[in-house]
What we know:
By secondary structure, the protein is of the alpha/beta class. The chain has helices spanning 12-24, 39-43, 54-79, 96-107, 129-137, 169-182, 199-211, 227-238, 252-256, 259-266, and strands at residues 2-7, 30-37, 85-92, 111-115, 142-145, 156-160, 185-191, 216-222, 242-247, 273-277. Helix 4 packs parallel to helix 5.
Amino acid sequence: MRKILVPTDFSENAFNALKYACHVFKYEKSEIFIMHAYADEVYQQDKLTKRSLLDELKEETFRKSVTRLKGILTEIKHLYPNPQHSYKTVAAFGSLIDEVNDLVNQENMDVVVMATRGETNDRSLTFGSNTLQVLKYISCPVLAIPEGYSYHAPKEVLFPTNYLAPYKRRELKLLCEMSGSFRSTIHMLYIDPIKKLTLRQEDNQQFLRECLPKAKLIFETTGEKDKTIAITKYILHNDIDMLVFVNSRHSFLEDMLSQSTLDKIGLHIKIPFLVLQNLFR
């Protein structure tokens, strides 16, 4: 049973991420949790001037959240009546990051699927602040869906790697099953002017082969010094449908998750972005 968490702020972007989750996991028996964290909505209300009003506003916001979650549930079941999928809705009083992290741990989630930007985020930014925090700190894989993205089966997947970042078997299994469902090709892109692999890198490359048996693997190397340019060019020239990174200390993803780099790469990358987390679970 695949366990999938889809946070929502009731925006069109969030619903689009939910639709993508239903598409990309349509061949797998899945339990999909649709969650709304509403603490910010309570604390940001102008009429919250006295502590005596707090419980009243919390209850009022909770009821509204439950009603809207039921509406989403009705709509998604109508659009995607998949007998393989079951749903749960969660309205939680807390910050998005805390509630996502708690639910990931409680339910042992396999993946979080969310929009790159929420309803209130600056449209000039590639990732909204909440999405950025989830990408960096949540302990399970995160699949971020760009604004306005129209679903395409992930037939061509780009996985830039230096063959040094540790890989988790469970997370590679997620990618393996997803790629197997669509008979995907995974392009392993090594970006380094020094093209010769060390013995350790060769062993890690073999480990990837063993963990991704259901995909067609293509091993590519580029001497391009600027990783952002190398990735962007490869996406454009090879009609890539999904980008995959491993999040680890001192990795390219860590550098990329600075807003300045995201602004640069976001001008070109308009495809789903899967982050595999190198964190203990």
